Structures are given as C-alpha cells and as structure tokens.
Amino acid sequence: MYKIIFKLLISKIANSKAQFISLLLxxxxxxxxYIGILDVSKMMQANAQTYFNKQKASDIxxxxxxxxxxxxxxxxxxKDNSIDYEKYNILDVKATYQEQEYIAxxxxxxxxxxxxxVKGKKITKDNECYVDTSNDELLNKNIxxxxxxxxxxxxxxxxxxxxxxxxxxxxxxxxxxxxKINLIIFTKNSFISDYFPKQYWPYPSKYNALSIYYPNxxxxxxxxxxxxxxxxxxxxxxxxxxxxxxxxxxxxxQGVDAFHxxxxxxxxxxxxxxxxxxxxxxxxxxxxxxxxxxxxRMLMGSITSMGFTNKMVIAIYLIYSFLxxxxxxxxxxxxxxxxxxxxxxxxxxxxxxxxNIKIYYNFxxxxxxxSIMIFLIILTTLVIAIKETRDSPAQLIRPKAPVSGKxxxxxxxxxxxKRLKFLNKVNLRNIFRYxxxxxxSILAIMGCxxxxxxxLGIMTSVKPIISNQYTKIDQYMGIAYTNDMNNKQLTTxxxxxxxxxxxxxxxxxxxxxxxxxxxxxxxxxxxxxPQNATNFNEMITMNEKFNDNSITITRKVAEKLNxxxxxxIKITYNDKDYQLTITNITDNYVGNYIYVNNESFRDIFNINxxxxxxxxxxxxxxxxxxxxxxxxxxxxxxxxxxFLQDIISKSLNSIENLVYIMIAFAGILVIVVTFSLxxxxxxxxxRELATLKVLGFYNREVSNYVLKENIIxxxxxxxxxxxxxxxxxxxxMNSIEANDIYFITEQPIYNYIxxxxxxxxxxxxxxxxxERSIRKIDMVESLKSIE
Amino acid sequence: MSYIxxxxxxxxxxxxxxxxxALNGINLNINKGxxxxxxxxxxxxxxxxxxxxxxxxxxxxxxxxxDGNDITKYKTKMLTRYRRHDIGFVFQFYNxxxxxTTLENVEMAKEVAIDPFNPKKILQLVGLExxxxxxxxxLSGGQQQRVAIARALVKNPKLMLCDEPTGALDFETGKNxxxxxxxxxxxxxxxxxxxxxxxxxxxxxxHVVEMKDGMISKEYYNQHPKTIDEVEW
Lengths: 787, 233
Ligand SMILES: Nc1ncnc2c1ncn2[C@@H]1O[C@H](COP(=O)(O)OP(=O)(O)OP(=O)(O)O)[C@@H](O)[C@H]1O
Ligand SMILES: [Mg+2]
Fold this sequence. Notes:
The complex is a heterodimer of chains A (787) and B (233). Chain A is of the alpha+beta class and 787 residues long. In chain A, strand 16 (568-573) and strand 17 form a beta hairpin. The radius of gyration of chain A is 34 Å and the shape is elongated. By secondary structure, chain B is α/β, with parallel strands linked by helices. In chain B, strands 6-7-8-3-9-10 form a six-stranded mixed β-sheet, with helices on both faces. A four-stranded antiparallel β-sheet of chain B has the order 2-1-4-5, with helices on one face. The radius of gyration of chain B is 17 Å and the shape is globular. Classes of the chains: A alpha+beta (787), B alpha/beta (233). Bound molecules: adenosine-5'-triphosphate and magnesium ion.
C-alpha cells in the first residue's frame, strides 16, 4: 500500500512539474529572504564578536594623559580581584616616510585588543612595528617616528586591524597636531621605553593606558543588553578610581557603537520584507494546492472508491507539499545564509574593518523561517485537502460543477458595459468569476510590487542625501575649531586665517553641543551662532536667508518634534534648560542644527565669544590649505567636510547594496508568482481554451484572451501595490532610528513608473512563456467526453 | 468532384509499444449539402475520423481533400484558419463556456467568422430566443446542446460536424436536436456529418457510413431520407 502511495506521489509530481518547481522556488525565496534579512545584523555582530574574542578585546579601556600608578591598579583589584588587566602606552606622535607626514598614534598593548595581522609577518625585533591596514603603502618600509623632535626608525613588518579601531572614522584627534589621526602604529613596549629620552613621559615602566578585562561575566556579547548593563556598572565602579572621562567600555567605543547602530538599522529597514514574502508565499501556495487538489478529484475519487481512506488521500497531499516546501527550505537556507548577509557585510567592510568574514548558520533564525513556512503550507494543504475530500467518492469522480456564471457589478452600469468590446466583456466576467483566485492574485501582485516600490523608495530616499547635503546645502569646506576667542582675539586670528593662501571666505561662529529630547530620548543638537548673519549664507544655503533675527531649525528636528514657525523648543545645555522660539525651518539631511542669530544667542546663553571659523577654499582640493591651517597654533581641530562626505557616502552605499538585493528578490518573486498564477489559470481552463481553439481562434488569440485577464489582474494588484509600497516605504523610513539623518519620504513619479513597468514586463514575459503551454493544449484530449 | 474526398486515410495511436490502428485506410467521398450519418460500434474510429475531417487532429498517411485542398498538408496555422472559416463543431458534452450567457457563447464564435449569421436569429432558429441572457448552468441539457448547435451554425460553416450530439439527451430532446440539424442541412445547403450509436437515425441521412475496426464496412445512400418525425425508435 505504501508502494501505491509512493507511486501516486511520484506521478503527481511528474504531472505537475511546473507547479512543483514554482512552489519550491517560492518557498526558497521566502526562506532565503527571511533568513538573509533577519540574520544580517546578527551575522555582522557575530563576526565582530568572534573578532573581539580572538583578539581578546578588553571590557574597559583607561586612556589617560598621565601615569597610571600601581596603587590605583591595586585599588581596582581590591574592588574586584577577578579582573585581568594590561598596562601599556599610547602616545600621539608624528611619523614620516619619504616626505609624507602622518599624524599617528603609537601603542604597545599585546595582551588585550591584540592587533590582527592581515598582511606581513610578526614582529620579532624591537625596531619593528605594525601599522593599520589603511596605510598599506607603508608595508616593509622604514618609517621615522618623531616625538617632539626625537626621531627613530622603525620597520613596518605587518598590516593589522585592531578591535579598538573598528571604524576608520573614529581614530580620534591627535593631541600634538590638532588634526585627525591617520596612522596607528603598534610596537613592543621596549621600543618606546628604550628609545624615548627620560624627560619625555612616559619612560620605562611607566604607563598611561590600561586595559581591563572581566573574565567572570555571564555575557561577553558586546551587542547584548546584558553586556551593556554590565559594563555600565563596571564603569561606575572604575570611575571612583579614574576620572570617568578617561574610560571607555567596549560597547561604547565609537567604532563599535557606530557599527552596532548600522547593523541594527539594516534590520529595521528590511524586517517587513520577509513578512510580506511570507504572506505572498502562503497565498500562492494555497492557491496552487487548491488547484492541485481540485485537479485530482477524480484520482482521489478512484482511490477512495478503491477502499483507501480519506486519510491516505490527505496524506499524499501532505507529503507532496511537505516535499516541495522542504526542498525549497533547504535551498532557501543556503541561499539565505550564503548570499544575502555576506553581500551586505562586504559592502560594510569599507567602513568597518573586520577581518575574515565567516558565515554563521544562525539556526534560531533558520528554524523560525523553516518551521513557519512548513507549518503554514502544511496547514493550508490540510485545510484544502480535508475540504475537498469531504465529498463522497461518487461526487469526487465527477469534476467539480463549474462555477455558474453571474452578472458582475459593472454590468449594472449599462452605459459603460454596452461600450465594451465583446471579448473584453468576457474577460471581465472571467476575472470576477473566481473571487478567491482574484483576491489571492491581487494580494500577491500587490505584495511584490509593494516591495519593489519600497526598495526603489529606500534607494531614492538614501541616494540624494550626499549631493543635497554637500553640494546644495553646505557650501563651506570645513570648520576650524579654536579655543574661545573674545572679539579682540577673533580679529587677530581671523586676520591670520584669511592670509592663508587658498582661503576664499571665512565666518566665525560659536558652536555648542546641546541636547533635545525626542521621544524621551536625548538627542544631540548643535547650536550654531555665526558672527555675521549675511555672510553666513555663503557658508550654508538655507531655504530662507539667514538674518539678524533668525532662529532656524533643521527639518528633521522640526518634524520629529512637530515644530512650526513660532513654536518653542526646549534645549538642554550644561544641565540647564533654555527656550528658543523658531522663526524658520530649513532643509538639512545630515545632523541636527539650530542656527541662532548672534544677538539672541548672547542673550540666551550669555556667551560673548567665538570658538570656530567656517571657511571656503578657492579650489576643491583643499589639502594644501589644510596643511597650512594645521600649523596655526590657535587652531585646535579642523573638521574637513569632504572627509565626512566620504564616510557618509560609504555608509549609504552599503544601504544601497541591501536595497539592490531587496529589489532583485522582489523582482524574482514577481516572476515566480505570476508564473504560478498564470500556470494555474491555464490548467484550470484547459477545456475552455481548447473550445476556443476548436472554434478557430488562433493560438495568438487564445493566449491574448488569457493574457488580457492576467494583465488586468496584474494592473489591479499593481495599483494596490503602489499605494501599499508608498506607505510601507514611508513607514520604514520613519522607523529607522537615524535621528540625525533626514530621509526624503516622498517618492518621485519615476519610481511608480519603474515599479509599474517592471511588474508588467515580468507579467508579460511570463505570459509569453506560457504561450507555449497554450499552444500545447490538445483539443482532442482536452475535450474528450468524461467517461 | 466531391466536396470531401478521403483517400486511404490512416491514423495510429501508440500506447507504449502497442500500436492501435484507429483508422485503417478510409476511402470516402461526400458531396456538398449531404447529411451524412456515421454509425459503428464503440471504438470503431468514428470520432477519430471526424476529428481529422475537422482539422482537430493529424493523420499519419493518406489524403483528406476538402474543397480541393488536402488538409493533411496543412500546418497548425492553416488548420486553425480552416476550422475558423469552414467548420462548425458540436460535441456530445456541449463544451459551452460556463461564464458567459447563451447569446455571448454564440457571439464568441461569431467573433472569428467571416460571414456570420445574426446570433439572435440563429438562437431563434433553435428556439432559444427567450433564453439569451441565461448562463449555461441555467439551461437544460437539450437547451445547452441547442446553444452549442447555434454556436457552430452562427459561423455559417461549410461543414457541420456533430459527434453524438444526442448522446447525453433523452429521446424527445434528442429528436428535437436532430430535427434542427436536418433542417439546417436542407435550408442552408450545409454539409452535415453526424455520428451516432443509434441505427434508427440512419434513415434520415442522405448518405450513411458504417464503420468497424477503423474501416468503412458499409456505405449507402438513401434515395428518400425520412424526416425525424417519421423515424421510430
Ligand atoms: N488518444 C488516444 N490514445 C490511444 N488510443 C486512442 C486514442 N483515441 C482513440 N484511441 C483508440 O482509437 C480507436 C478509435 O477510437 P474512437 O474514439 O475514434 O472510437 P469511436 O468510434 O468514436 O468510439 P465511441 O463510439 O466509443 O466514441 C479506439 O480503439 C480507441 O481506443
Ligand atoms: Mg466517439
């Protein structure tokens, strides 16, 4: 008997290859999408965590400008004697290689935060060193390291990544030159201690940095809540010994934190995708299984009339759908893990330096995806099979009575109906004949095109940020930060500043970092108060020109806090609250700012100084200017706008890659779904189509007849899909926790056109493919009277 | 020359390695305007022959000359055109399109015809003028078959092919159907071929063909074909 069941099963599959495969593919896509998208952030984090574990990332770093004495360490151990630690040195130096000057950090840690050797060989001698991988031109070169005029050569033997510098963005500023660090050097402690003269601190056996590691903690996963709570506690404990401003926990390391946010953002952005995929999958598979079972009524009838029980018949269907789903799930499993996360992680690797991306099968996610998929499809099959086998064998042997014709709503509008061409009327009736099928098809198409629309929408929200911010809005090249300057100091300094050749325009300002509350969470906002309002318009283009009465806020904040012109905003600065009345709102894409005219600023904050200079350069290439400016003693730090632009565009590019994947999958889904629906439509109506052939309809006409119906259904689904996609996209963009990036949530017309055309073209393509099966319909066979 | 001229027509089916000679060398001539009745046991090859004449299937060898053209040489497109312009088909199980009304079913066929009749007039002819807006499921079997006949007729075909048109109907209804077909052939000078299991019906035909094992076993002409009402069975 099992043999018979097996035989029936095999013949079933052989008879419905196209269905079997499309069902299988849909399952595969659904599972792959679910796994891929939901696992990206976890896989990114798992890779980072593995890297941390391997390189023994410390829990807390104490980086001070003075000596860390043994007595302080003893104090620390007294509080928690389980700790493990390493003392080392970290110094800001300058390094040169053939005229090229580097602003460098040199550090000597070996036990914790071990550098990971990417290229080259291990350090064996004292005068050898590693440098970070962004400076690969230095490999095997002798660099000269210079601390306050004392120089020593050192050979670069290897390129390394370090868990302390996950992101190139956050290597910090140098204390000796006020510019950004662009080189990290790792050496043995003896290199420093042997070499640096004693008057320069630190000298042998004195250290200014400390790595702390807690071996006995429950959770070492940097990205988990437990770990973060744990380090918070420990920071509190350690801060009674060292000033808190010298402490960083692993999760608060700027690079790690940015990485964490970026990885979570992917999930927020894409989480709805797999859900919609699942819904579409279920719709299509339910559709296909209904078709399948109805198609086999006779077979079921004859099996049951041969004495088999309904249970066995149902079992055949369950096995059938289990097989497709299971094979689909297995394919989806591998595609999901091997295709999606690595692609996205790779695109993030320009921002975050994690060596050796490995694929981790996250069985939790996989089991979720697979069990939901199998459960839903099996359930659908079960419901349909039970419903269909309830008829007696005699009833089953006869084909299901065709759904009787009915007038459709449109016919009530006689003036329209009368004008329709005859065949169009027939098409319309057919469309509305099978309500269930219509509904499922529309929903499926709606899902696909909605996803497409969302993908395109994310792309258009993300893409223009860079050009809008850095070409349309920001006109300045950079900001030079100084100590607070009173009017007299400012005049002298500006004089010096403007003398630097290449400077086109400059404008002094006081910039201060304050906080606002958005949804009860503190968000940073920068208050900018330029000295000369009119000239400031040369630096930043605002929607309405900035003037001596303006208090202008950027759009993201205005939208988040629902502010209009005339609204008041509460700002916290140095633990004090201030009220400001908004006069203007302006477009801005990166960062949150309030531009306050200098008079109001002085009144409100009681600050009469300036602390930075916005500047424009004559040419775009400003590196020469920057070099000269760096040498000015009154300048502390220079924010180079082109550097920021570069970093942000890299981050946005990574998002784009994700979107390409989503669009590709949505496209594939459109194809598979239309294929499956059209296929079912044709099988279901073989008799009708054969009749048309007998009547002398050409193959072309017969397929047009079906094609037209499919196109109408597709267009209805598409219209819903476009609306759905618009809202879905808006929802996703709003839910992305990027409080300092403003996304445009309106979709341009061409997105609608693209989504529309792509879906329609896919539908037509599939239909053209299906023409073959229409041509193959055998009139004689299809119309053979039912014996 | 006859309207239809069939020479040594053969058709085989293969089931596995077994070869079935469905038509084993048919020779037959049919004149324009004849009402031909084909009888024979089940499996004799009647349907196969009709399908070949109707261009729904392809033969293996022999000639099938309709109006001077050998349709065995036709490719798919030409065959479709032949069906479209020359043939009206009536099946045992009416094969109406369930989702459209009586009138629309007939109009459907009209869509592809060159010189069609008025669908409403044809439906009047088969006595369905009152049921134009009914859907197939709302009609009795006989009524449905009349719609099927109207659908075949509306194209104004040169050749009507009916495969057991009364097979699924009761006696009275069947008689009605045959009456219509006979009237059509006489009034419109249409060539009509009807397959039946009922020997009594042979009396209404101008030309009777009896088949057995894929061959024509007997063939004769009735000098005075009876009208349906004169036939008893
Ligand atoms: N598709 C097919 N495959 C194999 N054999 C077939 C096929 N169609 C018909 N036959 C065989 O060809 C022979 C002729 O069949 P045909 O349908 O023409 O008979 P018939 O005279 O119409 O019979 P009935 O009166 O029962 O309708 C039969 O032996 C039948 O089994
Ligand atoms: Mg037959």
